Structure formats: C-alpha cells, structure tokens
C-alpha cells in the first residue's frame, strides 16, 4: 500500500491520487491539515530529503512568515518545528511505497513502475 502525504485540496496531491488510481495502485492519504504532522514524521521527512528540498519557499505560507521563522528553515531541528506549525510549507506530495521508498513531488511519483 502506498502512503501519500499532503493536503487533500492541493491540486498536485489530487493529480497524484488520480495517477495512482489510473494504474490500479492502492494508496491512502495522510492529510496534514486533518491528521497533523508529529515530530517523528517531521524529523523523518527532513532526514530523508533535507530541509532544502522539503520546504516550499515559493508558496504563500512561506511569504507570510517573518524573517525569524524563515531562518528556522535551514536547520533540521528547527525546520521540523516549522513544518509542524505550518504543514503547508511541505512540498507535495510525499510518497512512501510499500517497500519504504520515499519520493518527493509528482515528478518522482511518476518513476514508480506500473
């Protein structure tokens, strides 16, 4: 079973779900807004990809942060706190395959074989 992490009303997350459905792949969604993101998950995501890849610096949420909060994005420990407080900062979707392969973004998702 594939686990998709993201926000249910995100166009890219919906597109990823449709892509998986079209290939008959079973998946579940962990919606950050509904289910939150705990410290263990935040640390794991940042450990796999690093803060530079995980944090979306082009979105509205990023632009609304003050300089002090934006500075937290470079250190993995403070970045974990930042994405827990503002899950919309996380690039989407994050995909975890049944074999525990972690993928970030729609383009990486498309590397899964049918």
Task: Write up what this structure looks like.
The protein has 114 residues and is α+β, with helices and mostly antiparallel strands. The longest helix is centred in the first third of the chain and has 12 residues, at 11-22. The model has no long low-confidence stretch (mean pLDDT 96). It contains eight helices and four strands. It has one domain: Glutaredoxin (3-Layer(aba) Sandwich), CATH 3.40.30. Helix 3 crosses helix 7 (76-85). The protein has helices at 11-22, 32-35, 39-49, 51-54, 60-64, 67-71, 76-85, 106-109, and strands at residues 2-6, 27-31, 94-96, 102-104. The protein has a four-stranded mixed sheet with strand order 2-1-3-4, sandwiched between helices. It is globular, with a radius of gyration of 14 Å.
- What is the H/E order? EHEHHHHHHEEH
Q: Could you state the CATH homologous superfamily?
A: Glutaredoxin
CATH architecture: 3-Layer(aba) Sandwich
* Count of runs of 4 or more consecutive helical residues: 8
Q: Determine the strand fraction and express it as a percent band.
A: 5-15%
Helix content: 40-55%
CATH class: Alpha Beta
- Low-confidence segments: none
3D shape: globular
Major sheet strand order: 2-1-3-4
Number of domains: 1
Instruction: Kindly report the CATH topology.
Output: Glutaredoxin
State the end-to-end distance.
Answer: 14 Å
Average pLDDT over all residues: 96
The major sheet is characterized as: 4 strands, mixed
Q: Report the count of strand segments.
A: 4
Going by helix content, strand content and strand pairing, the class is alpha+beta
């Amino acid at each position: 079973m594939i686990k998709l992490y993201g926000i249910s009303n995100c166009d890219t997350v919906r597109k990823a779900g449709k892509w998986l459905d079209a290939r008959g792949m079973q998946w579940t969604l962990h919606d950050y807004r509904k289910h939150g993101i705990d410290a263990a998950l935040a640390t794991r995501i940042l450990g796999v990809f690093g803060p530079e890849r995980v944090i979306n610096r082009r979105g509205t949420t990023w632009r609304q942060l003050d300089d002090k909060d934006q500075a937290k994005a470079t250190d993995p420990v403070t970045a974990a706190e930042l994405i827990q407080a503002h899950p919309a900062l996380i690039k989407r979707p994050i995909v975890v395959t049944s074999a525990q392969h972690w993928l970030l973004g729609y383009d990486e998702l498309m590397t899964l074989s049918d």
